[in-house]
Amino acid sequence: MPNFFVRVLTAEGVKTTRVDAPDAQAVASVLNVMPQHVLEARELSPAKQMLARSRRRFPLRLFSQELAVLLDAGIPLMEALKTLCDKEPSASARDTLDDVIEQVRRGLPLSGALGRQPQAFDELLRAIVAANERTGQLACALAQHARYLAWVEDLRTRLIAAAIYPLMLLGVGTLVILFLLLYVLPRFSGILDGLGNDIPWSSRVLISFGQTAGQHPLEVLGTFAALVLAVLALAGHPATHTRLQSLTWRMPGIGSRLKVLALARLYRSLSMLLAAGLPVLPSLHVVQNVVALPWRAAVGQAAARVECGERLSEALESEALATPVACRMVRVGERSGELASMLERAAAFHDDEIQRLTELLTRAVNPALMLVMGVVIGGIIVLMYMPIFQLVEQVQ
Length: 396
What we know:
Number of helices: 18
Oligomer: single chain
Low-confidence stretches: 47-55
Number of domains: 4
């Protein structure tokens, strides 16, 4: 979702903030202010969005966990929020909590106060809080949300850890290739240039590149850096990110496991919302903004099917959002009235996929990547030495 730099007129004066919204016209509704009070709404570039998110990342899991502990200890909500604000070391997080406290003091419910800070509190948390404010089970719901975020962070950490070695291998291999092309090859090209057309065509192309690289090394490095930055900027675009994710899901071996992990997150999100007392249809609308980007349209279609009278199990199965195990568990939950717990069990059943994925990366992807880098580096070296071998044969 695009991120906007916003200047808005409030009772305290003009405030600046950053807001995630579908477009500039939706900024006012996200902030819950009159449209004429929005003085400026400027969409940030992908690079600035990444920088802004890194600077203002709110410790959401810690907030849910600590607020649950304070409320469970019998501390009133306002006093608990002030306690969290006083102990927060980050200035941006303190500003966020100050705004929440001010909105609660004015009479807004906690869910409404959290909704004024959508960049810090996602829709899933706001829906859970809104559902539990009426039942008095807010502490339990916040604790469950903290456990969910801990599971998501653990999943992300394990995936990143599994990808570190392939990325290091790719980076070192790229540096070796650049060293060969920019340092070694220009010196070889000067030696072999006198052989004329008596060398293979592929070696002549490589030597020509070596001469160009030797004469303009900074331009070559600049072009390479520009390509890397362009790829990173393009990958940060939502549409490109969706296509890359869809392409990753089609990869043999890896794709099916990534899909199952994304489905496990969908089941856990639905389980939390249903356990909080939210009906199935509103829960689907909430998780539509939580699931992986390629499946958001499918979740929307599933919500439309439920609205037309289909069961949740039928809607998920029709939109390919249920594994065979999950589909059977959801059907059992619908018959027994324990849908939330069965969705949680379905998610737990698929948790082992992360272990299988890391083993696949270790046993298959890493050797394959080493083979590719070895072939590329070895090919460059062979093409460099081929004219020398040919010259030796001619001398003999």
